[in-house]
Design a protein that fits this description.
This protein is an alpha+beta fold and 131 residues long. The chain has helices spanning 47-60, 100-113, and strands at 21-26, 36-37, 43-44, 71-77, 81-88. 21% of the residues lie in helices and 19% in strands.
């Protein structure tokens, strides 16, 4: 199971960069696997997901900056790799506390349930902003 606590986050020397940071994660992108439950009732993250998430840490390397304020993230998925660009955003605040990806996930599931799209796999581009 992956741990998202601050104790598990890498520590880097460069804090709050003023410019963007880009990197490539080699290999075919994978969707995040759903949590599984063992026969003993323990919930765990599938091994393929854990390995795929670890590839991001490898791609970033040891001297990557740490962004501690609001950021814009651009992700481009191809058959060969995932291109990632992270850019700091100046003077941004929002009263919304949830993770942006969770807002997007609920919205797409709701749109699908409403019958507007057949399956959220149809979605090939998303622009989402918390304000």
């Amino acid at each position: 199971m992956t741990d998202k606590s601050n104790d598990s986050l890498p520590t880097h020397s460069n804090v709050q960069p003023s410019t963007e940071f880009s990197f490539l994660v080699e290999g075919r992108p994978l969707p995040k696997g759903r949590p599984r439950m063992s026969r003993k009732g323990r919930v765990y993250t599938p091994a393929t997901t854990v390995r795929a998430e670890a590839e991001y840490a490898v791609a970033v390397g040891e001297d990557a900056p740490v962004f501690d304020g609001p950021v814009r993230v651009e992700l481009i998925f191809t058959e060969e790799h995932t291109a990632v660009t992270i850019t700091p955003v100046e003077d941004w605040s929002t009263p919304l506390r949830g993770d942006l990806d969770n807002y997007v996930k609920l919205a797409l599931d709701g749109i699908q349930r409403a019958g507007i799209i057949v399956n959220d796999q149809q979605v090939v581009h998303i622009d989402a902003t918390k304000v």
